[in-house]
Write a structure and sequence with these properties.
phytoene dehydrogenase activity, alpha+beta, Amino_oxidase, FAD/NAD(P)-binding domain, 18 helices, five-stranded parallel beta sheet, about 575 residues, protoporphyrinogen ix oxidase, domain 3, eight-stranded mixed beta sheet
Length: about 575
């Protein structure tokens, strides 16, 4: 679900403001901060400190679920172990990796585990890509996206364990909570009982909820899902050609099921509506959530992602002899006469050479930096259909503690908003007993990405008025805004529209010594943090498998892109 990612290490010429924004972050476009010019806002600072010393956090989270014995977790653990147990290379490869988002960090981590020497280049001065975050002048953090870590993310969960940071995930009760637009201020819950195994716990949660779907609608939806349950993965992949809306109607599922449940789910998964989203994406999520007992259980990171998740990965890479460099933006992929990579040319004029090269940037940046001689190769030409989707992340600090919320992720079911959370409740580092900070995903965002931040805040407040009718008014006659941050990502995760699956590339390219990593590359978790981490592992696996070829001297050549 919600956002994850890779970053650019690219130097791209400015074109109508697009390319500066495309790097998904930073100072000018992604990280604007504003303070509301009222006397009250000038006096109040949202520091979480009391006169008596450091704040004592009293949040109580759910214990970590038992994930270690699930098939997917064990499979992910086995892949991780294969790098640590791989024969030590006689000559470690120097692998140059562009982009220090989760895909690039994962690639570098597992290459280092296998005994190689990754050099990770990040264009900006912050780690994380689509999980990047910045600290404002008050010491408060604002993020690129609202990030949720699911039980159904086996490679991410293994990564936390391998780094010894399992305690940094704050697990929440096993529920999915939806706002009720027809009843402003009220919520409807799907509660998954721990005493039942999957899929019975999910079926029970659906059957027990009578506020969103009627019994006839539940039955028709269940009948519509039968082919997916019987057909398995082959059936799921075959549905890539249909949108969610088209598939539901084909299966005889009432439109109200889509309106009540799958608009919210589509926006949470890929920031677009059901008339655009490929049904394959929904079926993969449902499969993970219904087939794994703790698959849909959610956790929040206990603080800002660059420090609490990315830095432990960097420390691990460096401890094994790898390097991570910030402010290292790639200007050009320089080629040898045979068409293979000679070096990465950086914007400061320096060149970086290696034994192998990885691009772990968003697909849009890769496409802009592709050498002309590569563009007609089918492997790269198919990338034309893969395009990042725009998304906006909004943070609002209020002058009071809002009462109509939960210590959990909430599905807004708003026309403009996707999911949101009161981060002053859900996250230890952001905890504040006196004031709420709402973090909200504004999606679909295509029509809003070029609008002013004040327009976006005004529209958000109108939606919040419906979610908090007793506490928030659009004109701020109730709760007052102390400050806000608006983070725009014009090109986030790739847009999972129908017929994209055949265009997703394998991690090993047809150019010898050149590899890809990122959520858009071929792996079964699509556009997600889990997909990014798994893509990095697959990329590392390909490089380890190609060791003898890469270590040998002599010119490279074109090779087949194989699994």
């Amino acid at each position: 679900m919600v956002v994850f990612g890779n970053v650019s290490a690219a130097n791209l010429p400015y074109q109508n403001g697009f390319l500066e924004a495309l790097t998904s972050g930073g100072c000018e476009i992604m990280g604007h901060s504003f303070r509301i010019p009222t006397s009250q806002s000038l006096k109040i600072r949202t520091k979480r400190r009391s006169a008596g010393g450091p704040l004592q956090v009293v949040c109580v989270d759910i214990p970590r679920p038992e994930l270690e014995n699930t098939v997917n977790f064990l499979e992910a653990a086995s892949l991780s172990a294969s790098f640590r147990s791989a024969p030590r290379p006689a000559k470690p490869l120097k692998v140059v990796i562009a982009g220090a988002g989760l895909a690039g960090l994962s690639t570098a981590k597992y290459l280092a585990d296998a005994g190689h020497k990754p050099l990770l280049l990040e264009a900006r001065d912050v780690l994380g890509g689509k999980i990047a975050a910045w600290k404002d002048e008050d010491g408060d953090w604002y993020e690129t996206g609202l990030h949720i870590f699911f039980g159904a993310y086996p490679n991410v969960q293994n990564l936390f364990g391998e780094l010894g940071i399992n305690d940094r995930l704050q697990w929440k009760e096993h529920s999915m909570i939806f706002a009720m637009p027809s009843k402003p201020g009220e919520f409807s819950r799907f509660d998954f009982p721990d005493v039942l195994p999957a899929p019975l716990n999910g079926i029970w949660a659906i059957l027990r909820n009578n506020e969103m779907l009627t019994w006839p609608e539940k039955i028709k939806f269940a009948i519509g899902l039968l082919p997916a349950m019987v057909g398995g993965q082959a059936y799921v992949e075959a549905q890539d050609g249909l949108s969610v809306e088209e598939w539901m109607r084909k299966q005889g599922v009432p439109d109200r099921v889509t309106d009540e449940v799958f608009i919210a789910m589509s926006k949470a998964l890929n920031f677009i509506n059901p008339d655009e989203l490929s049904m394959q994406c929904i079926l993969i999520a449902l499969n993970r959530f219904l087939q794994e007992k703790h698959g849909s259980k959610m956790a929040f990171l206990d603080g800002n992602p660059p420090e609490r998740l990315c830095m432990p990965i960097v420390d691990h890479i460096r401890s094994l002899g790898g390097e991570v460099r910030l402010n290292s933006r790639i200007k050009k992929i320089e080629l040898k006469n045979d068409g293979t990579v000679k070096s990465f040319l950086l914007t400061d004029g320096s060149t970086i050479e290696g034994d192998a090269y990885v691009f772990a940037t968003p697909v849009d940046i890769l496409k802009l930096l592709l050498p002309d001689s590569w563009k007609e190769i089918p492997y790269f030409k198919r990338l034309e259909k893969l395009v990042g989707v725009p998304v906006i992340n909004v943070h609002i600090w209020f002058d009071r503690k809002l009462q109509n919320t939960y210590d959990h992720l909430l599905f807004s079911r708003s026309n403009l908003l996707s999911v949101y959370a009161d981060m002053s409740l859900t996250c230890k580092e952001y905890y504040d007993p006196n004031r709420s900070m709402l973090e909200l995903v504004f999606a679909p965002a295509e029509e809003w990405i070029s609008r002013s931040d004040s327009d976006i805040i005004d529209a958000t407040m109108k939606e919040l008025e419906k979610l908090f009718p007793d506490e928030i008014a659009a004109d701020q006659s109730k709760a007052k805004i102390l400050k806000y941050h608006v983070v725009k990502t014009p090109r986030s995760v790739y847009k999972t529209i129908p017929n994209c699956e055949p265009c997703r590339p394998l991690q090993r390219s047809p150019i010898q010594g050149f590899y890809l990593a990122g959520d858009y590359t071929k792996q079964k978790y699509l556009a997600s943090m889990e997909g990014a981490v798994l893509s990095g592992k697959f990329c590392s696996q390909s490089i380890v498998q190609d060791y003898e070829l890469l270590a040998a001297s002599g010119p490279g050549k074109l090779s087949e892109a194989t699994v």
